[in-house]
Amino acid sequence: MRPHGPLSPAAKPYSLALVLALLYAALVVHASLYPFSGWRYQGVALWAFLQAPWPVHWTVFDVATNLLAYVPLGLWLTVAVARHGSRRRAAGVGLLLPCLLSLGLESAQGLLVQHRVPSQVDWLLNTVGAALGVGLALWLLSSRWMARWSAFHQTGLVPQTCGAPLLLALWPLALVYPTSVPFGLGQIWPRLERTLYDWTEGSFLQPWLPTPMPELPLSPLTEAIVVALCIWAPLLLGYAVLRRVGQRFVFLLLALGLGLAALLLSASLTWGPTHAWAWLTPSASLGLSFAVALALLSLALGHRAAAVLSLLAWVLALALLNRAPEVPYFAQSLQIWEWGRFIQLHGLSQWLGGLWPFAALWVGLRLALRPAPGQVYNRRA
């Protein structure tokens, strides 16, 4: 039989950091080269932007975006490489690879004539951001934060979390992308349907596709139910891996706070700070109240029961959400993000917002089917 002893304190954070670095690098590539159309060679060397004059016009938003975008990549690469080598080597890799990645992407943007303009300033800001990530990683490695996380992972979480902590950490980031219903992540069917029809236009496959049917908008009560389910389901996922009721209550407060902050940030970026609370309609307020009540009543649930209820909540929420049409203001919000100053964030936030619930379904299913541990967890506060 295979031993069931705990993992070494160092194994889990480092391996997780490598997965995070690879996934984040893929998302950076997508965000940097979106919309992947309009490619054309202009007869100029792709690295000519390095000798071009510095841009005259710039905004604080552009500087902050290019600087902060590469901080996680430098951080996770440094932590991942530190497992197999010295910290000096890890710092070198954490700085060099993002620097080369940014240089390659800026060069490739020279082929996207209509959508992107390569800039040596962007490359320098990306490199500085990676350096900040390396510095943060070295500080974390030399401090006690890694040891504290390892201790909490062993005493505060169930033995097999199946990636739930990582997924829950990404939930507020996924909420930054505009949604037609507050907290309503995963409404991908309308856009997927349009994409399928565009791809198969004029081919023999198009008659095989389902005929689009006009959908009625969600009623105020149904919208409130969707909002409640889309909040309750992630909270249940957290309950499924946390051992004690007290920890679950703290997680409830933290998750709700970060979720509300993400929606406020999204509305502020899209419509301006004066409209930060525009999403809080009567239906959204009712749904938020329902979610808080359900989350409080669920604090004492068993781990498997919480995982199963999370699955059921997501299935119902996605079924209702994907049958609803996209409202006009939602389409306008997407246009602002796709073709405005948020084009660099569009790819990353779109993938997170669209795929997060389906990743939660997969993680919840694994949690529901995991073997019962050989010990009874104390769920007292």
UniProtKB/TrEMBL annotation:
<feature type="transmembrane region" description="Helical">
    <location>
        <begin position="90"/>
        <end position="111"/>
    </location>
</feature>
<protein>
    <submittedName>
        <fullName>Predicted integral membrane protein</fullName>
    </submittedName>
</protein>
<keyword id="KW-0472">Membrane</keyword>
<feature type="transmembrane region" description="Helical">
    <location>
        <begin position="123"/>
        <end position="141"/>
    </location>
</feature>
<feature type="transmembrane region" description="Helical">
    <location>
        <begin position="162"/>
        <end position="185"/>
    </location>
</feature>
<feature type="transmembrane region" description="Helical">
    <location>
        <begin position="277"/>
        <end position="299"/>
    </location>
</feature>
<feature type="transmembrane region" description="Helical">
    <location>
        <begin position="306"/>
        <end position="324"/>
    </location>
</feature>
<feature type="transmembrane region" description="Helical">
    <location>
        <begin position="55"/>
        <end position="78"/>
    </location>
</feature>
<dbReference type="InterPro" id="IPR006976">
    <property type="entry name" value="VanZ-like"/>
</dbReference>
<keyword id="KW-1133">Transmembrane helix</keyword>
<feature type="transmembrane region" description="Helical">
    <location>
        <begin position="348"/>
        <end position="369"/>
    </location>
</feature>
<keyword id="KW-0812">Transmembrane</keyword>
<dbReference type="Pfam" id="PF04892">
    <property type="entry name" value="VanZ"/>
</dbReference>
<feature type="domain" description="VanZ-like">
    <location>
        <begin position="33"/>
        <end position="139"/>
    </location>
</feature>
<feature type="transmembrane region" description="Helical">
    <location>
        <begin position="249"/>
        <end position="271"/>
    </location>
</feature>
<feature type="transmembrane region" description="Helical">
    <location>
        <begin position="224"/>
        <end position="242"/>
    </location>
</feature>
